[in-house]
Amino acid sequence: MIESALGLGTLSILVWLPILGGLLLLALGQNGAGVRLDRWVALAISVLTFVLSVPLWTRFDSSTASMQFVERLPWIRSFNVEYYLGIDGFSMPLILLTTFLTPIVVLAGWQVIEKRTAQYFAAFLILEGLMIGVFAALDALLFYVFWEAMLIPMFIIIGVWGGERRVYATMKFFLYTFLGSVFMLVALIYLYLKSGSYSILEFQNLPLTLTEQILIFLAFLFAFAVKVPMWPVHTWLPDAHVEAPTGGSVILAAVLLKMGGYGFIRFSLPITPDASSELAWLMISLSLVAVVYIGLVALVQKDMKKLIAYSSIAHMGFVTLGFFVGWQILERTGTTAGIAMGLSGGMFQMISHGFISGALFLCVGVLYDRLHSRQIADYGGVVNTMPRFAAFMVLFALANAGLPGTSGFVGEFLVILAVFKAGFWYAFLAATTLILGAAYTLWMVKRVVFGPVANEGVAGLTDASARELLILVLFAAGVLGLGLWPAPLVDVMAASVDHLAVQITQSKLAGAL
Amino acid sequence: MSTLASALSADLLTVWPEIILALGLCLVLVVDMFLKDSYRDVTYLLTIFLLAGIAWSLLGAGAGGETTLAFGGSYISDPLSRVLKLFAVAAVATVFLYSRPYLRARGLHLGEFYVLGLFALLGILVLASSYSLLVSYLGLELLSLSLYALVAFNRDSPVAAEAAMKYFVLGAIASGILLYGMSLVYGVTGSLNIGDLQATIGTAEASSLSLWVGLAFLVAGIAFKFGAVPFHMWAPDVYQGAPTAVTLFVGTAPKLGALALAIRILVEGLPALGDLWQVMLAALAVLSLVLGNVAAIAQTNLKRMLAYSAIAHVGFILLGFVAGTPEGIQAALFYTLVYVIMAAGSFGFLVLLSSRGEEVENLDDLRGLWQRSPWFALLMVLLMVSMIGVPPLAGFYAKWWILSALLETNHVGLAIAALVASVIGAYYYLRVIRLMLFEDGGQAHAGGVPLDVRVVLSVNVLLLLLIGLLPDRLLELCARAAALI
User: Fold this and answer.
1) Does the global pTM surpass 0.80?
2) What is the distance between the alpha carbons of residues A60 and A92, in angstroms, rounded to a whole number?
3) Burial class of B186 by CB neighbour count within 10 A (0 to 12, 13 to 18, 19+)
4) DSSP letter at A379?
5) Chain A positions in Cβ-Cβ contact with residue B382 (cut-off 8 Å)
6) How far apart are CA A224 and CA A165, in angstroms?
7) How far apart are CA B100 and CA B179, in angstroms?
8) Contact at CB, B404 and A160, closer than 8 angstroms
9) Separation CA B351–CA B347 (nearest Å)
10) Do residues B185 and B215 lie in contact, with contact meaning Cβ atoms separated by under 8 Å?
11) R_g (Cα) of chain A, nearest Å
12) Who's near B164: CB < 8 A, 6+ residues apart?
């Protein structure tokens, strides 16, 4: 209805509405004390964006792997670059995750952010539009434009509203991710020169020799591994998370990290399948290192945010493990069934991790707003003074540890199931996450939430406000909803997963010069 | 007799914009003599009208894509020259629009600023259309001498005098080197005409040692005008020492002249020696990228930082020549145009902040600017983002096109080196953003700045955003302008 009136597609509206809304907020600026119009505008725009994104789900045809809601216009004619948007079973859930989380982030910053609130909300709205653009773009250059443009609002969010070492953290964040992405640009230009177009779908059909594929794969790996982040290029994440404001941490963990995983699915796997197969050992090893080693690192953290950041890296290791373990299965059993299972497990894990990590960062934010400390040692016995909040925090912690009935279980279960087909020792190492994850999360919860009231600060805590409870309920709905009834999400992805599984097992070497 | 007259009139028609400019600037000079200080705005308005008129005549002439040679093939009017001229006129007009309050606050609002600026512009126009080594030299000297005088424009400032002296001495040496190179080329080929050079240098001449030496001298001279390492020494001192309004001039339009010089002499005149000058320029480009980006990190003076940034950007421009294909030259042209817009914005920003009288030129002055002048801080953020090469600003497409051209010619190593250098470079641009947004305590603010300057800066920066969102127009313009080379 709206789209036909404006001559725009749903995806375009979802990309541009938050961006224009953000610019509007910047133009409105701070207004006088009292009304605080800016946050209401921000909330209205983000909720409206979410409402407008619901049709992506309801009108989505999950029986096909082809692109839907397609919009295609020439953009840079001289280079055959198009304004080309469309979604499939991979991008649609991620877009909904983004539109669902942004209103929550706005709510999370409702009272906490005290300086330059209009700019704060504007940055998040612009970021939302750009993130949706990344997931919806089917033209590689358009994708790159959104991908890089995201760095600017995120850089500003961490730098302006972050903690004490925010400048160091945000510089590190920007330079790390920028360095990663420039290699991707080289690969994209190379693919354009080969294919004469920037269409990602055409890249996927382009025959390439093994050497080309490996080089392109490595270039993509630079960009995506930094974003995921994979060991050993993960070091920016704990810094960025610790220093970012709560809303920034939520978006960073819940959506930005998923860009890396999405990149593997959209670019690395289908464009360079032979290299993916060739280098699967590398990816599996790096993923297992992330799962085991980073899990151990998380165990010794004293700072709650840092602990959850390391936990994120470990969980994202599961995602990449799921994406790449398929080849090992193929080699061992000769069947492709495991590939699809790993892929959908990884995808599920991404969405689930979006909710869980976002929720955990929010819980830390709630505590931090009260005591201005993130140190585990400063807490203890929170349950006595904040019973309702504690219930939610324990729920999210259990979900992070992979408790059945929560979304965390489904993704990990699917991946481990796939990994088992690849070999016992892979599965053994991967399954340590169940122990390590439970250990570091529950130990943290034990020290923070349970026990006697540790000090006067904790004794003076007030329980979560209605606004905070609303946010926690929304997160809990996501975590439990996906955990108890994963079928809708799995079904939506199924066609795309199967298509990708077929696509990546077909060698692209034939026909390559 | 009549054929001579008609030939002459056809020739004169080709140089019509230059003739208007030459006559117009004499008029400005004369009128200005009779004006009291309080009427200096008349000179300013006259200059702006003159530039508008030239732009109009260029637009009229640039309707078709035709190429005309004049004065025995030593002067050319082609799409490339028209694009360069149009941008040069626009850049100089922008400089004048920015500078008036700045100069007035320092008692420097004198007619000579405009006259010297117009002379420099005339030099650039001649360079853009030159099709003979000698004419190129003429244009270059006209440009350079005007710039030396402009740098020393604030004659009470010892720093400016030192900068001008340095610029003059080094510039004179570079001109000498260039002229020597030209004479060697003339000695081997017996021709000064670009068209003849292109046609006559065959394989036999191309292997002549004297020609190689001549080429090396030419490249050195061109590199000096661009400010490429190792011929960059003048740039940081001149940028820092000159009054900011003059830095704004030196940092923008002359780059178009240097580009014209390089395209006419190397690409059009000596394509037979392409392999040779591409190697030379590749070395210069890598050195400029590395040294420019690394040295800029150490600067505390913003003008000096932007000088090193200019050196790094020149490295990128030269990479377009290294690719050597028409594509590469088009990319270099696009990069130069975008760079001129970015440089005009960045120095214009400094001029704007300094236009009440105090000098804003240190990085620390910008601390916390966001709280005092949010709009201009935002514009500067966009400028720095564009300089880094992050989409959706024009600077990204400039780098992207150069990279495409490099990859197309299999210069993968150079492409990656350039990218890594620009990641290093991102650090100091980000530092500017950081100081403005994340920190407190500076003094600079944009209060009391006249409306016209505010509007010009806003338009200037939003133009970068517009090109970034819809780059097609400018990309195609550059592709067409450099298609015939």
Assistant:
1) yes
2) 9
3) middle
4) -
5) none
6) 25
7) 36
8) no
9) 6
10) yes
11) 22
12) B148, B149, B151, B152, B238, B241, B242
Enter the tokens of residue A434: 């169940």
Q: Going residue by residue through chain A (513 aa), what tens digit of pLDDT does each one get?
A: 444 445 578 888 889 999 998 888 888 776 545 557 788 888 899 999 999 888 888 888 888 888 888 888 888 888 889 899 999 889 999 999 999 999 988 888 887 777 788 888 889 999 999 999 999 999 999 999 999 999 999 898 888 888 788 888 889 889 988 998 999 999 999 999 988 889 998 888 888 888 889 999 999 998 999 888 888 888 888 888 888 888 888 888 888 889 999 999 999 989 998 888 888 889 988 998 888 898 888 888 888 888 989 998 988 988 998 888 888 888 777 777 788 888 888 999 899 998 999 999 999 888 888 888 888 888 888 888 888 888 898 999 989 888 888 888 888 888 888 888 888 888 888 888 888 888 888 888 888 888 888 788 778 888 888 888 888 998 899 889 888 888 888 888 888 888 888 888 887 777 665
CB B74 within 8 A of CB B95: no
| Cβ(B27)–Cβ(B46) below 8 Å | yes
Phi/psi region, residue B75 (left: phi>0; alpha: psi -120 to 50; beta: rest), is beta
* Dihedral (CA of B266, B267, B268, B274) sign: positive
Beta strands at B68-70 and A68-76: parallel, antiparallel or unpaired = unpaired
Burial of A457 (0-12, 13-18, 19+ CB in 10 A): middle
Find the CB nearest A186 among B388, B419, B472.
Answer: B419
3-state secondary structure of B132: strand
ipTM of the complex: 0.91
Alpha-carbon distance of B119 to B153, in angstroms, equals 14
Kindly determine whether residue B403 and residue A145, on different chains, have CB atoms separated by under 8 Å: no
- How far B284 CA lies from chain A's nearest CA (Å)? 22
CA nearest to B228, candidates B332, B135, B373: B332
Q: What are residue B362's phi and psi, to 5 degrees?
A: -100, 150
> Which residues on B lie below 8 Å from A26 (Cβ)?
378
User: Any chain B CB within 8 A of the CB of A185?
Assistant: yes
Q: At what angle do helices A236-243 and A166-195 cross, to 10 degrees?
A: 130
Token pair 């939610």 is found at A392
At residue B122's C-alpha, the angle toward residues B119 and B126, to 5°, is: 145
Contact between B39 and B32 under an 8 Å Cβ cutoff? The reply is: no
- B479 in contact with chain A, both atoms CB, cutoff 8 A: yes
The CA R_g of chain B, rounded to the nearest whole Å, is 21
Q: Do B472 and A76 touch (CB under 8 A)?
A: yes
- Separation CA A135–CA B71 (nearest Å): 58
B11 burial type by CB count under 10 A (0-12 exposed, 13-18 middle, 19+ buried): middle
Q: Which amino acid is at A142?
A: L
Q: Compute the distance between CA of residue B133 and CA of residue B144 in angstroms, rounded to an integer.
A: 16
CB-side neighbour CA atoms (13 Å) of A83: 15
Largest CA distance in chain B: 74
Q: Which residues contact A200 (CB under 8 A, 6 or more apart)?
A: A137, A138, A139, A140, A143, A266, A267, A271
Cβ proximity of A392 and A470 under 8 Å: no
pLDDT digits (tens, 9 = 90+) for B12-70: 888 888 999 999 999 999 998 888 888 888 999 999 999 999 998 888 765 566 788 88
DSSP annotation of B266:
I
Token pair belonging to A326 = 């398929």
In chain B, what residues touch A127 (CB-CB under 8 Å)? none
For residue B476, list chain A residues with Cβ-Cβ distance below 8 A: 77-78
Do the Cβ atoms of A145 and B422 come within 8 Å?
A: no
Lookup: tokens for B161: 């005098």
CA distance B242 to B480: 36
